[in-house]
Design a protein that fits this description.
Jelly Rolls; eight-stranded antiparallel β-sheet; alpha+beta; 2 helices; 164 residues; single chain; 12 strands; two-stranded antiparallel ribbon; 34% strand; globular
Length: 164
């Protein structure tokens, strides 16, 4: 006859191992879901205005009644926009990864999930991902009638890598 205490211990250990396995699998599933954007990547951003690879997915198109275009922009690590301005300014909302934002003459600002930036109208600036981690943002560009975007020169590696 088997010892009932040893059998109980064996069943308890098996139950604990199984429970631990399920919890670990669930944690990995939740982690992988949190790293996926809720929006598609969209179309590849033009190389004439970006260094590296970035994608733009329009969320709200401007029209005569609602002149505030909104887009989801995804940057691969090291990707960034060129210097540019917006006639109506721009607001950025960081939704994933680590991003960089810089206005002309100011230090680079690090952006993380939940951060936001208001860029004043006609202020030269650029934004993109950190060198090692990609970045996803929501870009809100109000008053497109005042000039949606004016593209300027590329951000140099020295500008990109400086933290002033």
């Amino acid at each position: 006859m088997k010892n009932p205490i040893n059998l109980f211990r064996l069943q308890l250990m098996a139950a604990l191992i199984f429970t631990s396995f399920l919890a670990n699998a669930q944690d990995k599933s939740v982690a992988s879901q949190s790293q996926q954007s809720i929006f598609p990547k969209g179309r590849k951003a033009p190389e004439s205005n970006f260094t590296g690879t970035a994608w733009v997915y329009p969320l709200i198109e401007a029209d005569s009644a609602f002149n505030i275009p909104v887009a989801n922009v995804t940057f691969e690590p090291g990707a960034r926009s060129h210097w540019h301005t917006h006639g109506g300014g721009q607001a950025l909302i960081a939704i994933d990864g680590i991003g960089y934002y810089q206005e002309k003459g100011k230090p680079v600002r690090i952006l993380r999930k939940g951060d936001s930036v208001k860029c004043p109208p006609n202020t030269p600036h650029w934004h993109g991902a950190s060198p090692q981690v990609g970045f996803t943002q929501i870009a809100v560009t109000p008053n497109a009638a005042a000039g949606r975007v004016t593209w300027l020169q590329p951000v140099t590696d020295e500008e990109y890598n400086s933290k002033q």
